[in-house]
Amino acid sequence: MAASVLCRRLASLSGVLRAISSTKCISPGTSQCGCLLQIANYNPKPLRLNIKDPYIPDKGSEKTPEWQKTTKYDRKLFGRYGSASGVDTAKLWPSQGELETLIAEEKEWHPSLEEILANVAANEKEKAKKRLAREKRIATNMANMPKMVADWRRESRDLKLKKKEEKARRDLLLAEARTRYGYALDPRSAKFQEMLKEIEKDEAKKRKILKRRKKEEERAAATATDAHTADATT
Fold first, then answer.
1. From the record, what ranges are coiled-coil (predicted)?
2. What is the pTM of this model?
3. Which of 14, 18, 90, 143 is the most exposed place for a label (fewest CB within 10 A)?
4. Rounded to 5 degrees, what angle do the CA atoms 3, 4, 10 make?
């Protein structure tokens, strides 16, 4: 650092000397432009720099920058000057926490060859497993393709039939409303919805009557069968 400061000062001094030597001596007076030209004498202060001994910063001084008081800078001093730097080598070793951090970073960014090979083998195994699962899924889907196509066609047919039945029922309800009221009703109107509720109640009653009648018929048929069986045994 001292050597660099000395070089900069010597360079500036040589530049000033060259400028003075190239300038002609002019006696005090008035030039053509009316300006007074003067030559200033340059008296540089002598440099008292110790460039033989290494530069060791004073850590107790307030003028010393903080970055020169760190352990990192002490490591640089010891690496440059060795024992002449006066740095305690015991303080240059990393602490337990720093050592653990360095070991963790070494394991993360520079794994061993065994770990690299193990990771490669695990990745290849995982890829093969996924490929086999995909091929198995494709084979299963291809085997089920005829059934899937048949199911899709049946669902499409049922959906069309359902839409057709709903349309027929809607047309029947609109015709019923026209018969009752003598004019066409809007399916969204309150009167049409009221008529729809009445029709649904009537249909529910009819279903109950049919269900009761079916049960009576089944009961009568069972009684007749039992009587016939009893006559045959006697």
1. 118-169
2. 0.34
3. 90
4. 90
